[in-house]
Design goal:
The chain has a domain at 27-102. Helices cover 53% and strands 0% of the residues. With 111 residues, it is mainly α. The longest helix has 18 residues, at 85-102. Helix 2 crosses helix 3 (46-55) and helix 3 (46-55) packs across helix 5 (73-82). The chain starts with 7 loop residues before the first helix and ends in a 9-residue tail after the last helix.
Length: 111
């Protein structure tokens, strides 16, 4: 079976940015990518997500624009509060399914 792109950018490209254009200091894909990576690494709140980004900013810059640096924790919170949760779930599910196929995982156990 051919596996499609595994990038977060590819799977979340259809997600609508809920912010006004003139208020966007950070790219939506930067915010989403940092948040997903942070949660995978164990972050459980917005401040921990921001801290993850700051601690790994050099590494993240290899993949992300980060034109205005790492977003503040309240930026993560505001953006995620405004995202369409169903649209986010569809993007996230599709990304996980492709990721599981790529590494030949048949089932992802729940905690």
């Amino acid at each position: 079976m051919a596996v499609s792109s595994l990038t977060i950018k590819q799977h979340f490209r259809k997600l609508r940015d809920p912010r006004r254009r003139h208020r966007r200091l950070h790219h939506l894909m930067d915010i989403i990518t940092i948040a997903i990576c942070a949660v995978i690494a164990g972050a459980s709140n917005w401040k921990q997500i921001e801290a993850f980004g700051r601690q790994r900013e050099r590494w993240l810059r290899r993949f992300l624009a980060l034109a205005n640096g790492i977003p503040a924790h309240d930026t993560f919170q505001r953006v995620f509060a405004r995202l369409d949760p169903v649209a986010f779930q569809v993007c996230f599910r599709d990304w996980l399914i492709n990721l599981a196929d790529a590494v030949d995982i048949k089932q992802i156990p729940a905690r």
